[in-house]
Amino acid sequence: MSKKRKISLSEEELVLSLQHREKIAVEALYDMYSASLFGVISRIINDTAIAEDVLQETFVKIWHSFSSYSTEKGRLFTWMVNIARNLAIDKIRSKDFKNQNKNQEIENNVTFIDEQRNTVYKPELMGVKDLVQTLKPEQKLIIELVYFKGYTHVEAAEELGMPLGTIKTRLRMAILELRKHFN
């Protein structure tokens, strides 16, 4: 079985092929840029399967919206990276993605992040996990949402049905309480 030869075109050739909607353009686009775009997406989305789906969405969007690309505004790669980045951010902000992540317990999230990033950071060894457990329940919940599940302050306020100011105050108080243990 022979290995498929990768297609490589100059940026100008690729742009022309894309403008003419040639089949070779799609193949070259994927061969030349899939690894780089996947890297951008993977830095935002830590789930490989979801990142692969977003990569596919990225190439579909590039193909369908190529008429909006202009060489005067910048390089092709920069334009594609912006599409990939925006789709990845849209994905992690989507209701489906949030609901999927809410169903995982905090311990699973911490372990998942460690496995994805091959880190040796273990909060349980530092006692951080135990320290968070000592907080008041309302502080602990906000810390879990913001720091372990990646919610923004606004998203945490919406999730908990609280004013943004209350979220920020409780978060600040929780951090001050946790800092006492590290001084």
Automatic annotation (TrEMBL):
<feature type="domain" description="RNA polymerase sigma-70 region 2">
    <location>
        <begin position="29"/>
        <end position="96"/>
    </location>
</feature>
<dbReference type="InterPro" id="IPR039425">
    <property type="entry name" value="RNA_pol_sigma-70-like"/>
</dbReference>
<keyword id="KW-0804">Transcription</keyword>
<dbReference type="GO" id="GO:0003677">
    <property type="term" value="F:DNA binding"/>
</dbReference>
<feature type="domain" description="RNA polymerase sigma-70 region 4">
    <location>
        <begin position="133"/>
        <end position="180"/>
    </location>
</feature>
<dbReference type="InterPro" id="IPR013324">
    <property type="entry name" value="RNA_pol_sigma_r3/r4-like"/>
</dbReference>
<dbReference type="InterPro" id="IPR007627">
    <property type="entry name" value="RNA_pol_sigma70_r2"/>
</dbReference>
<dbReference type="GO" id="GO:0006352">
    <property type="term" value="P:DNA-templated transcription initiation"/>
</dbReference>
<comment type="similarity">
    <text>Belongs to the sigma-70 factor family. ECF subfamily.</text>
</comment>
<keyword id="KW-0805">Transcription regulation</keyword>
<dbReference type="GO" id="GO:0016987">
    <property type="term" value="F:sigma factor activity"/>
</dbReference>
<dbReference type="Pfam" id="PF04542">
    <property type="entry name" value="Sigma70_r2"/>
</dbReference>
<dbReference type="InterPro" id="IPR013325">
    <property type="entry name" value="RNA_pol_sigma_r2"/>
</dbReference>
<dbReference type="InterPro" id="IPR036388">
    <property type="entry name" value="WH-like_DNA-bd_sf"/>
</dbReference>
<dbReference type="InterPro" id="IPR007630">
    <property type="entry name" value="RNA_pol_sigma70_r4"/>
</dbReference>
<dbReference type="Pfam" id="PF04545">
    <property type="entry name" value="Sigma70_r4"/>
</dbReference>
<dbReference type="InterPro" id="IPR014284">
    <property type="entry name" value="RNA_pol_sigma-70_dom"/>
</dbReference>
<keyword id="KW-0238">DNA-binding</keyword>
<keyword id="KW-0731">Sigma factor</keyword>
<protein>
    <submittedName>
        <fullName>Sigma-70 family RNA polymerase sigma factor</fullName>
    </submittedName>
</protein>
